[in-house]
Amino acid sequence: MSLQAAAQSSFERSENLLDAVFGGADNPLRHLGALGLYFLWILVASGLYLYTVLDTSIDGVYSSIDWLSREQWYLGGILRSLHRYSSDAFVLVMMLHLVREWAYGRYRGFRLYSWVTGVPLVWLAYISGIGGYWITWDRLAQFSAIATTELLDWLPIFSEPAARNFLAPDSISDRFFTVLVFIHIGVPLMLILGLWAHVNRISRVDYLPSRRAMAAIMASLLALALVKPALSDAPANLALAPADLRLDWFILFLHPLTDITSPAAVWTLIFGTTLLLFALPFLPHPAAAPIAVVDAPNCNGCSRCHADCPYEAITMVPHPDKPGHQIAVVDADNCAACGICAGSCPSSTPFRSQDKLVTGIDMPQQPVDVLRRMLEEKVARLSGKTRLVVFGCDKGADVAALDAADTATLSLICTGMLPPSFVEYALRSGADGVVVTGCRDGGCDFRLGMEWTRERLSRNREPHLRDLVPLDRVQLVEASRSDAGKLATAISAFRTRLEKDMAATTRPPAYSRRKIHHG
Amino acid sequence: MAKPAAIIGQIILYGAFAAFIGYFSTAPTYRQIADDVALVKLSMSHLGGRECRKRTPEELAKLPPNMRAPLDCPRGRSDTKIVVELDGKPFYEVTMHPTGLSRDGVGTVYKRFELKAGTYKLGVKMNDNLVNPGFNFVREEQVTLKPAQVLVIDFNPDRGGLFFQQAKN
């Protein structure tokens, strides 16, 4: 097993484990990006207050911050602690987010832009974090300032060593802290701008975690701020080398690393890792799947695909053949080839009479016509007391293994590709029940597949499941790749329930496409 | 998982998260230098010397009136050699090269040494124009270094050339 596969498997196991405690919507591992943004907003809000009370004079900078922690602990002290701890949490979830996306292989093709724009954000986060520590101008700040400038001096960028600025107590002036605060505000602003670019090609961005998760995280940070408030060390004294340092290992780990290796080794590591991250999407990888294709005569310009696309790959433009109408256009760079657009297209209904079902927007590797034909064939072959059709997801639990005489399975690129009319079609063609399964909540490889499916099947989103379909004959099961057992159990329970309630439940009128007279 | 169990699980996990953040934000403590060690920082930024030639009256006469500088100086500067001695023995030697494409910028050095706390005879010699032999700046002092104390070796013509800076405590 490759390192990447092992990392992915490890993430999957951890996410599944946390699902049991948090549920998908609140599972922190499934919402690392949103968590990072939440920590950033805490940083910004607490930072605004700290800025208003900061005295940037050389004598006042230490005392003004220390005063907050000791005299105004109930407000300034807590905000300072929140600022400190949310910065650590931000760095932690940022790095976890990076490793997770790598582990899942989410850095190439349509994700290239988000990946490449994300890499510089790591630099900006660390520049902000390290610079922030200097502002307190205590022993730790002194150590970090000297260690950072000594590291920077290894690069041929300054005409004079930057570390000369911290030689003696009289080396620095009030102006230093003014510049520092300017940098500590400017760099995070660049970070926020970079984040905007980072999520620019994603629709319905997960800007914040769920309210429950936000409340719980805030409570945790507040408890931490009260139990262990962030305090300054002794004031900086450039005449003395700092002794025991209460180091922030999330942000300042580069300093000890430089001490035990060398500036050359650390810069090699930093630049090497950065280059590798940038190069990763361009390294050899499997060919990208074919993207969605629009069929102009069958596109009525309803824009549902445009609304449902998780990656803003679809735009609506004037239809070339139908004046006053619009047509969907697919951006090849952004298209994830997930098929969610095909599932949203009202023309994807299998009840249409044509021998060859052509829809408005379709996936060349799994057209809805093929899907309909496979469904018809598989339903026709079903036998047994309770005949089920299982629609699965290539990225979720494997459904092919469940194929049996009384169970027909069809695996889609993404469950979001399933038009709800196919569920009705299966039931009216002879199936007793339909199971739709896809990745766990928050775990959809294409972000919104399961969310749209849930809403469509519960009649809250177009195209929705028609009213004549009894909902007790449809079962939605969240099952990720490693949840084969869970899926089998859920199907078995569904079958038992159907058998028990068969007489009591209604079924939609039978339908056979062969009865339609083709024109 | 039943709801109460999930709530307890969440409390434990959020608590573990806060504890993890709280611990590693200040611990384990880090010590850059040992207890009984002081720091000596050799840090200089100095423009090396150059050999100027005095122009003859004939040469000056040939120049336009506004360009009649009495000395003809090359643009480039000399390397600067520094030798640090500890108790009379060579301890560190470095040659600062002028920066810039025309070698007309300052030469710099920044080097941090760790020394056991104690009393030393610290000597620094500097030659900022290597066409001349020997050292044109020399400073030698008995210094006492306390643990964690920082002693800076620097050069400033306004402070008499080479000087040592050390906290008075």
Query: Count the strands of chain A?
Result: 8
| Fraction of residues in β-strands of chain B | 35-45%
> Biggest sheet of chain B, strands in spatial order?
6-1-9-10
> Mean pLDDT across all residues of chain A, rounded?
93
Structural class of chain B: alpha+beta
Q: How big a fraction of the residues of chain A is strand?
A: 5-15%
Uncertain runs of chain A are: 515-519
CATH class of the largest domain in chain A: Mainly Alpha
**Which architecture of the largest domain in chain A per CATH?**
Up-down Bundle
How are the strands of the biggest sheet of chain A laid out side by side? 6-5-7-8
In total, the number of strands of chain B is: 10
Oligomeric state: heterodimer
State the separation between the terminal residues of chain B, measured CA to CA: 64 Å
Could you give the order of the helices and strands of chain B?
A: HEEHEEEEEEEE
How many structurally independent domains of chain A? 2
Structure in words:
- The complex is a heterodimer of chains A (519) and B (169).
- Chain A is α/β, with parallel strands linked by helices.
- Chain A contains 16 helices and 8 strands.
- Chain A is elongated and about 95 Å long.
- Chain B folds into 2 domains: 1-30; 37-166.
- Helices cover 17% and strands 42% of the residues of chain B.
- Chain B has a 4-stranded mixed β-sheet, with no helix packed on it. In chain B, strands 5-4-7-8 form a 4-stranded antiparallel β-sheet, with no helix packed on it.
- In chain B, strand 4 and strand 5 (89-96) form a beta hairpin.
- Chain B is elongated, with a radius of gyration of 28 Å.
- The N and C termini of chain B lie far apart (64 Å).
- At the A-B interface, helix 1, helix 4, helix 6, helix 8 and helix 9 of A face helix 1, strand 1, strand 6 and strand 9 of B.
